[in-house]
Design a protein that fits this description.
Layout (H helix, E strand, L loop, with lengths): L1 E5 L2 E5 L12 H10 L6 H19 L6 H18 L11 H24 L29 H5 L4 H12 L4 H8 L3 H23 L1
Antiparallel strand pairs: 1-2
Helix pairs in contact: 2-3, 2-4, 3-4, 6-8, 7-8
Length: 208
């Protein structure tokens, strides 16, 4: 109860309760974002950063092994995320968090690959051309069900690992991967096939 001066008299004034929902939990954060993700303030940006930082750090580490570099990639990614949040579209609000995370993961993957390209003249370690395409048809039905799959993926050739991760996990298509890695789309398909074959071999070795 506070006092307010009105007509030269002090009157008791009951403060109105703050009806704005506090962002006390992660579910609250996702709920507020799903209602109006195109208009967020600095405090909400800070919550978004803290909430999704660990997830995007995991994405970055799929491409760069150095944690300091990965941290820089994540920070750069958040700058792009906040700058482009108004372009994000989601009509399935029940799966809003999943769709948002996928969108942010793609931005982070692109940022990580751009960082790699800054320090390397080429991402390729072996030359591939379109002629390889017909020799290695992509078998999309070959699903790998492996415990500790990341341990196996990390044993792949770096370029195989990048293509496999971009295609199977981040959801990029071969044309997008080709643009990101500076290779042809058919070379991306070849890398994917070879990655799957290598994973099968590693899996069989693991099960012996």
């Amino acid at each position: 109860m506070f006092l307010s001066l009105k007509n030269n008299f002090w009157h008791p004034v009951r403060l109105k309760a703050n009806r704005r929902k506090k962002l006390g939990t992660d579910n609250d954060l996702v709920e507020v974002l799903s209602r109006d993700w195109q208009n967020i303030g600095d405090k909400l940006r800070e919550r978004i950063y803290k909430h999704y930082w660990g997830y995007l750090m995991g994405v970055a580490l799929r491409y760069v092994s150095d944690r300091d570099t990965a941290g820089m990639v994540v920070n750069d990614s958040f700058m792009k995320i906040f700058s482009n949040l108004k372009t994000f579209e989601c009509t399935d609000l029940e799966n809003f968090n999943k769709i948002l995370k996928g969108w942010m993961a793609k931005i982070t993957a692109r940022t990580a690959l751009n960082e790699i390209r800054k320090h390397k003249a080429s991402t390729l370690q072996e030359p591939l051309t379109d002629e390889h395409d017909w020799r290695f048809p992509v078998m999309l039905q070959d699903n790998l069900h492996v415990e500790n799959v990341w341990d196996l993926i990390n044993n792949l050739n770096p370029n195989y690992r990048k293509v496999f991760t971009l295609y199977e996990i981040e959801g990029f298509n071969h044309d997008e991967i080709a643009e990101l890695m500076g290779i042809t789309a058919s070379s991306s398909r070849v890398y994917l096939v070879r990655a799957k074959e290598k994973l099968k071999m590693l899996y069989r070795t693991l099960m012996v």
